[in-house]
Design brief:
- By secondary structure, the chain is an alpha/beta fold.
- It has 2 domains: about 5-180, Rossmann fold, CATH 3.40.50; about 190-290, Pantoate--beta-alanine Ligase, Chain: A,domain 2.
- Helices cover about 35% and strands about 20% of the residues.
- The protein contains 10 helices and 9 strands.
- It has helices at about 10-20, 40-50, 80-90, 100, 120-125, 130-145, 155-170, 200-205, 205-220, 225-240, and strands at about 5, 25-30, 55-60, 95, 150, 175-180, 245-250, 265-275, 280-290.
- Helix 9 packs antiparallel against helix 10 (about 225-240).
- The longest helix has 16 residues, at about 130-145.
- It is globular and about 55 Å long.
- Bound molecules: pantoate.
Length: about 290
């Protein structure tokens, strides 16, 4: 069980990747904010399927948290993260920079933003969030220079936004999206699940159950009207007193714009976010409309 090398500065990180590439090795990157769970470990293993060397970055990025969000409370667990990554045997380097390393000039003035597709769903609930995500991921690409970068599809909107950014910025990296890893009762794995009280934890799988219900409506019962589908999801979530809905929407997987009628043969994204106590959880399903 080899312990991954920990690199904390950008220059050494870039030098490491360049050295590996000179040796003929491809390099994969898994960007994370730490507090790793089985979902992240799956991303690391997936990176190792495609690449000879794997970097996992661990950085709680301040610019993607809004005022009053959980930036201060966000768990910082580098020691246990590093042990978990060692067990996978898939990871060569943990890139764990300080805030000063990533934002060296203090208040950040240079941003990468993706218009329109960042405006809906989490974009409207968390203004400025995706601008922080695209900016940090662009910076990680510039520092780590990966051939492949791997992201979880639980954050489907983030993945589509990052794909657009990568295509339009001309980054020489291929993005790989990996299906959501779930607990036995369907709850999507998330670092924020640790905020849940036992009662909230028992209630939270309703988010997945509601998405399954919507999928059944579309696939089994042939419902094509998004208002009906969304209303049923909201009604089901409304039966759980500990669940406070943030949004439920059916959107196009390319434009992320809300859909009214679902076209046969299309792919749609059913996206939801809800609070259970202070924890804001998101989940989604990509559905092929028969
Ligand atoms: O998905 C996350 O954990 C974060 O948004 C990411 C991609 C690591 C950027 O900070």
């Amino acid at each position: 069980m080899a312990q991954p090398l920990i690199i904390t500065d950008a220059a050494s990180m870039r030098a490491w990747t360049r050295h590996e590439r000179q040796q003929g090795h491809s390099v994969g990157l898994v960007p994370t904010m730490g507090a790793l769970h089985e979902g992240h470990l799956t991303l690391a293993r997936e990176a190792a399927v495609d690449c000879d060397r794997v970097i996992v970055s661990v950085f709680v990025n301040p610019t993607q948290f809004g005022p009053g969000e959980d930036y201060d409370a966000y768990p910082r667990t580098l020691d246990s993260d590093s042990k978990k990554l060692a067990v996978t045997g898939a990871v060569d380097v943990i890139f764990a920079p300080s805030e000063a390393e990533i934002y060296p000039l203090g208040a950040n003035l240079t941003w990468v933003t993706v218009d329109q597709i960042g405006d809906h769903l989490c974009g409207s609930s968390r203004p400025g969030h995706f601008r922080g995500v695209t900016t940090i991921v662009a910076r990680l690409f510039a520092i780590c220079e990966p051939d492949v970068a791997v992201f979880g599809l639980k954050d489907a909107q983030q993945f589509f936004i990052l794909k657009r950014m990568t295509a339009e910025m001309g980054f020489a990296v291929t993005l790989k999206g990996v299906p959501t890893v779930r607990e036995g009762d369907g709850l999507a794995m998330s670092s924020r699940n640790r905020y849940l009280s036992p009662e909230e934890r028992s209630a939270a799988p309703i988010l997945y159950a509601a998405l399954q219900e919507a999928r059944d409506q579309i696939v089994e019962r042939g419902v094509r009207d998004s208002v009906t589908i969304v209303a049923e999801v909201r009604e089901l979530l409304g039966t759980e007193p500990l669940c406070r809905i943030d949004y439920v929407q059916l959107v196009d997987t390319q434009t992320l714009q809300p859909l009214h009628n679902l076209a046969s043969g299309s792919k749609v994204l059913l996206a939801s976010a809800a609070f259970f106590g202070s924890a804001r959880l998101i989940d989604n399903a990509i559905v092929d409309v028969p």
